[in-house]
Amino acid sequence: MDIPAMRANFAKAAATGDEAPLYFYSHLFLSHPETRQMFPVSMAHQRDRLFQALGDVVARVDDLDALVPLLQQLGRDHRKFGALAAHYPAVGSSLLATLEHFDEDWTPELAKEWSEAYTLVAEVMIAAAEEAADQPAWWDADVVAHERRTIDVAVLQLRPRAPYEYRPGQSLSLETDVRPRLWRYYSPANAPRPDGLIELHVKARDGGPVSTALVRRIGIGDVLRLGPPLGHLTLDGESDRDLLIVAGGVGLAPAKALIDQIAREGPPRRVDLFAGFRTEDQIYDRIDLQRLEQQHPWLTVTLAVSEDKTSSLEQGDVGDVVMRHGPWNSREVCVVGPAPVVDDTVARLLQHGLPRQRIHSEVFAPSRPGPDVDGEVTE
Amino acid sequence: MTTNAHESGPEDRRITPADLHGVRFTRATMLRPGYVETEVDRLVSRLAEEIGRLIGEKGQLRDQVRALQAQLDGVVTPVAPSEQAVRILASAQQTADNYVAEAEEFSRQMTGEARAEYEEQVRLARETAGAIIQAAQEAAARVTGGAADGGDGARTAELEEQVAYLKAFAQACRVQLRSYLEALLTDVETEWGRADPTLLPQDVIRTPAQRSGHNGGGAPATFVANTAAEKPRTVDADVVPAEAGPKRSS
Hints:
The complex is a heterodimer of chains A (about 375) and B (about 250). With about 375 residues, chain A is α/β, with parallel strands linked by helices. Chain A contains 11 helices and 12 strands. In chain A, α10 runs parallel beside α11 (about 340-350). Helix content of chain B is about 70%, strand content about 0%. Chain B is built from 7 helices and no strands. Chain B is rod-shaped. Classes of the chains: A alpha/beta (about 375), B mainly alpha (about 250). Chains A and B meet through α2, β1 and α7 of A and α3 and α4 of B.
């Protein structure tokens, strides 16, 4: 495979910015109109994503150890969009047409190289999807409770209709009929339970189509579709090191899932949870946190507010509050929440002397992009 | 008889037209004119086999052609779209994307502004209520202090009632502001729905009051006194017109 030639060719298409993905999707939808319904109305985010994902693949094409797991994950994840083996050649031919369109020095040799490379990629993805065929492509889940806790946070209880397995701290993608083809990631706020219920904490983001619908339009009896779980914020099952969990806003959800896991499975360990909010009004889950603290002698919950001078709670950014309570050097740490909270807290902890490998963190960005090659995961 | 076939065993090789052109039968004898019968018979039987084989092959090929034809009929071979078509679809898609982006931006701005307004109003209401309560408490302290050992009990009770009322008033302000904001947000939601019209007929947007059935438990209980707890209920009834917000707009 002539990798340098392919990279040079790809760079030409990538350099056009939005034009190449726009050409690609238009070509795909015209030659295979049946693929259009797999995508949302607005394709803007999709296009941003496509060439970035393709770039990731092209960058890793000589590092199969990194590439293959990524492709396998993508193949499995694409099942929920209704992607079938038959769609892959369609995408391949439109991709080749696009690469040709933006390269004046296109040669039959290059076409052959790309065609072979794409066939390999598609084979890995299709094989991974087929291996996962014993699992549903997606899970229908009934909304069995919907509670508005503050003006823009709702707590939902979902009951998947088929068993849904995940590890505490992982995320799942979901789609609702009121915002079709827009998949978003949320973290369950509990470890898997015998009754199968999953609790989600959703904050309506200004202008966010899915989050606002989940908070304000969805109610009991509605059905959501769940994609397979993914994510890395999971506890090392072997370690019984005491734990420090720092959560900002609805980052509280995975934090609660980890606490729930320790309560259910052990091993016994001390857990200090610091939950930061802007104002006291925004602490949407106070009652349940108090209940947990009373129930579990090993758990200490500290609430902090950063913009509420009248509050009697701890004042300041949650990272700052954590530092005032140390030392934490012996702890395993999980930090989860909005990027500023996570970055600030992790920086402070590193400065505090904690080794990097004991700090696990996950950023809840307004729209968390999923891994992707064909750009079918919307943000 | 002499044919080219003679050299390489007549059974392995097929008869070709050239072979037939080249056939020369030996004259039988001087007494009986014609070809040697055995030679003629052998050739005829070989030709019969050959023709049989060809007919069989022809049948097979015909079936194959039919099968392939059927496959082709099932597949609509996608014609590569013309450059012009790609351009037209691309610009249509971009136009649609811009509309959606504008709708989202509009919704983002409106929600953001509404939220800022809400927070500011709540803050002001709180400050005002705090100041009033403080003043009332000071007054109460003065009165009870002035009346030496608990002379004016009625006045204290009155003040306490006033404090409770003011607390309730502050809460009522918050409830109303919240309803106002809810109505505003529902409007935004409806606008978004319009931007995505295929979804509109599917469901009627719930008003906040309709959903409040399952979110009442979340509100922190601010009031202890019964009198205070009753006040907001009447205010709740006042709030009802706010529900009309989404209906008006649809």
